[in-house]
Amino acid sequence: MLGMDSDGWNSRYATTDLVWSAQPNQFVAEEFAGVKPGRALDLGCGEGRNALWFASQGWQATGVDFSQVGIDKGRRIAEAAGTSVDWVVADLRDYQPPAGAFDAVLVAYLHLPPADRAVILARAAEAVTPGGTLLVIGHDLTNLSDGVGGPQDPKVLYTPEAITTELPGLRVIRAERVRRAVATDDGERHAVDTLMRAVRD
Fold first, then answer.
1. Which of 3, 68, 98, 189 could form a disulfide with 148 if both were Cys (CB 3.0 to 4.6 A apart)?
2. Cβ–Cβ < 8 Å for 2, 111
3. Is 106 helix (H, G, I), strand (E, B) or coil?
4. Read out DSSP for 158-173?
């Protein structure tokens, strides 16, 4: 979820079958592979690819996004696959998830001004149940010089150091820059992301 308003994302999602891949983000699949299913919350889910993956793995998944068009596309995919996801249309700047209710909380590619991001990440941290995990992934600041794609405004990009400070009450397990293969017209290139995984003890 990049920094556009809901009308902008509704228009973008309405122009094609899928803006993003139907497959989950590679880091989501890697970090949660083999984890015992529970309740999962995908904040800024877009068309729902990660929420749908959680559901396919046996999780009770909730996907939240402010794009009605994106949510509707996710709902159609879920229905076609016989998969159940709890879809919520809401702006994350206003949305308050229930505290301590989710075994997995995901915030993937949510690029907003730092003050908005900090509020959303604090709420995401509060939503993690004891023993649960918060996974945050976003385009890293160094992607501007060393990677491809993503927002070009440095103010909305991530660093491991910045994200770590925005997660009250959680113990950080992993906070680093990771590289992700991206297919382009010039062949395969790589994007640089921040990946942060934290748990509530």
1. 189
2. yes
3. strand
4. B-HHHHHTT-TT-EEE
What is the tens place of the pLDDT at every residue in 4-53? 566 665 566 566 665 546 799 999 999 999 999 999 999 999 999 999 99
Sorted by where each begins, the domain ranges of the chain are: 6-11+25-199
Q: What is the pLDDT of residues 76-117, one digit of tens each?
A: 999 999 999 999 999 999 999 999 999 999 999 999 999 999
Residue 130 φ then ψ, to 5°:
-55, 130
Q: What DSSP line would sit under 19-60, residue for residue? A: SS-SSPPHHHHHHHTTPPP-EEEEET-TT-HHHHHHHHTT-E
Candidate CATH numbers 3.40.109.40, 3.30.1220.10, 3.40.309.10, 3.40.50.150; the one for domain 6-11+25-199: 3.40.50.150
Spatial separation of the C-alpha atoms in residues 129 and 169, rounded to whole Å: 11
Quote the tokens at residue 33.
């592979």
- What integer pLDDT is reported at residue 20 of this predicted model? 47
Residue 185: CB partners within 8 Å, gap ≥ 6? none
